[in-house]
Amino acid sequence: xxxxxxxxxxxxxxxxxxxxxxxxxxxxxxxxxxxxxxxxxxxxxxxxxxxxxxxxxxxxxxxxxxxxxxxxxxxxxxxxxxxxxxxxxxxxxxxxxxxxxxxxxxxxxxxxxxxxxxxxxxxxxxxxxxxxxxxxxxxxxxxxxxxxxxxxxxxxxxxxxxxxxxxxxxxxxxxxxxxxxxxxxxxxxxxxxxxxxxxxxxxxxxxxxxxxxxxxxxxxxxxxxxxxxxx
Length: 231
Prior knowledge:
It is a single chain. This protein is of the alpha/beta class. The chain has one domain: Alpha/Beta hydrolase fold, catalytic domain (Rossmann fold). Helices cover 39% and strands 16% of the residues. It is built from eight helices and ten strands. Strand 8, helix 6 and strand 9 form a beta-alpha-beta unit. Helix 5 crosses helix 6.
């Protein structure tokens, strides 16, 4: 009975989940729940909507119902951004509202944002009012292409534990591989699909569970330290 009681008290790693361009939190929730229930149950996942209503056609029209949202806007070359600083402030507000947030999980535009935020936070350019981002799950990600932001986001290696999904047919795959060059000791899941949240096969499930075990141990140790310090 005692061990069961202790299991109930374990705090799961909590992730703020940043959805893809012109989709929504509800859509990402459906995408992530392709994964086995016992995997999703190991994480505490929060699925907000991005701050701006979609300013154009969504690629998921006819697949997922509206409304659709976007985190920020960009030019055709993806090199200049509109509303990017407003987006960073909005994400900080979400972290405050839904805290404690341990990590960021992102898909597509949300993945690009998630991977950039630890570096921007370390430079004091984002998330200055919230605790350090400790974990990343990056699905179909890439680096920012705006030089002014990229120079700051990746000037130091990304050292927090991170899990990266690379799709064989994903048009962003080369950019996802380039991102991994800036990461210390990443966990990597290769899958045969394109730009999507993939299902987990036996091999990727093993990698996923290994990553979750690692971050759960970190969160559990932090909770023990808080208890011992009377916090």
